[in-house]
Amino acid sequence: MHNISVSAPAPAAPLFPIPNQHERFLRLPEVMHLCGLSRSTIYDLISRDAFPKQIPLGGKNVAWAQSEVSAWMADRISARGRGCDA
Q1: What is the pLDDT of residues 14-57, one digit of tens each?
Q2: H-helix or E-strand containing 16?
Q3: pTM check: above 0.85
Q4: Which residue ranges does UniProt annotate as crossing the membrane (predicted)?
Q5: Which residue of 3, 19, 75, 76 has the smallest Cβ count within 10 Å?
Q6: Is 38 helix (H, G, I), strand (E, B) or coil?
């Protein structure tokens, strides 16, 4: 008799990365409220690569990842002691 070992194939990688289960999208009014910045300031910072870029949701709808906005805010807090500007 022969013992034949058959292993199951490795699971395929997901088509999309699995986001942090606590991740959520923020729309512009909420981003403005959280950061205390105006709409024009947010878009100015984005144009200078100094603020997280928006994520297209379809059509003209965009949002920001809460984790990216929170990380930007944390970076600004830590930068205040170093005397850095945005």
Answers
A1: 565 555 668 999 999 999 999 999 999 999 999 999 999 999 99
A2: none
A3: no
A4: none
A5: 3
A6: coil
